[in-house]
Amino acid sequence: MSINHNDNSTPPLSRRRFVQGSLMAAILGGTGLGAAACSTSTAASGGGKGSVSFFSWDTQTVMKPVLDLFTKQTGTGVSFSYAPPVPQYVSTLQTRLQAHTGADVFILTAEDKQLVGGGFVKDLTGQKFLDPMNSANKDFMTVDGKVYGLSISSWAGGIMYNKDLLAKVGADALPDSWDGFLKLCGKLKDKGIAPYYDSAHDGNFMALWGLLGGYFDGHGGFPDADIFAGKATFADTWTEPLVAYCKLYTEKLTPKSVVGLTSDQVVSEFANGRVAMFGAGTWNVPTVQKSAPHLSFQTEAIPGIDKGTSYWTGAASPGYAINAKAKNPEAALKFLQFMASPAAVGAYGKSSGAITTTSTYTPSFAASITNQALGARSGKIYLPVVAWPRHSNELIQEFNTQMQQMVQGSVKPQDIPAALDKKLKQLDAK
Q: Rounded to two decimals, what is the model's pTM?
């Protein structure tokens, strides 16, 4: 097992852009077709071994060290093309595959899973190179019991807290239950300290996603498939944890004014000591460190409704998939075999700043993101929108509208899951 001590010092912008896109593609809107910048890696040496074409949403700067290593090890060149996530990449990929001009290998995203049903993606079930994949990543790449991609990294978000502000109410860490967390918020409020902000304006309800994940994990499993199969409802499964989360607002622990703050403004409030805690991912760490270099902070998992069931918000990263009509299927398979190797995972982790999760490579991380990295590698991560098999954009739009109205006091928390059920029924009837 190889260890790289230089991985993941500062997650670059591409990671942040991915996370924000996954959470808020619907809010940001637009599916405009973007022009993909194209270039080619080092030519294959030795000749006669062909090349593989690869369509990426990681930039060439991120991918070049990995692709150069692939060419060096295999003698196979890579024709590289790129479009930025999320809407431009998704639209470009779909257009190319439908026009039969798609690359041999591409990135399979949550928004593109319908391509599997259209016969555009090769079934990889049973391939040995999938064995090191983390269970959360494998589940993400699975459709109807078959695996269609290789996902080698994940992200995780939790609650970042100001150690000095928590110390003012006698706390040195987060409580081990949601009720305990609410009590901590109450103590901070009584001291005149704003307790907790989520980025409600941008639809990033970080603490809610982790609270849902811990609740589902401890109460019979994740209900997403059953909800979309008509065997369960949002009202049946979401009401208890959602109402618990909304106590932040119904009990006035988080002010209505938070709905007017963008994600960047929430980070600024934290960095300037005006709020004790906020829903944060690894991509927020560099900003906090730069804005407040002397601030002492930590990030932990979201406390669960039941004691000891803390969970992280997060998701497996999109995976490498093979075009079912690849022009060079053997080279495409060789490329995925390489991407699963410790050498490739290490190179990708170093160049991208991603939290790699494969079992055959153990990365190390900067102290400031170690908790999130361990959370991502544990597989205890949840983000509902990536688990929804259809209508994810429309449903997350409806959810965010309802939540913002709840924050402002015009919608009751217990009515929100019923609104999602109604919306899903309307969308399925179209």
A: 0.85
